[in-house]
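Continuing the series of single-chain predictions for the mutant panel. This is the parent chain; the variants come on the following pages.
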Amino acid sequence: MTIRYLHTMVRVLDLEKSIAFYKLLGLKETRRYDNEGGRFTLVFMAPPGQEDCPVELTYNWDGDPGLPSDGRHFGHLAYEVDDIYATCAHLQANGVLINRPPRDGRMAFVRSPDNISIELLQKGGAQAQAEPWVSMASTGHW
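Parent structure:
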């Protein structure tokens, strides 16, 4: 028996706002499916060159009264990045709150517009600790 990862699905309240957030992370839309009968849209987004590792954004046209909610029932999405500091600075400059700053030069957490926890991990070993990240306190939970 074999098993192959297909995707992670998260429900979103505002499709365009969520797409913009995942684009800030560097993901691109790889596939879209609109279901008129079911009244939903599925948008698959993945890192360039890793189209087989998408996140599926599920948008219900008639709304979803449970959103946004904590969304941590499944844990988090994790992405490896080339430069944890540059990535966090880019996200922060675009209005994204860094919930758990990369104080250790290795790991940070942010949240999507739908409150999905996103872990960012430094590719390879940790970078040398640097300001402003070392002194930055955590905000909220991740």
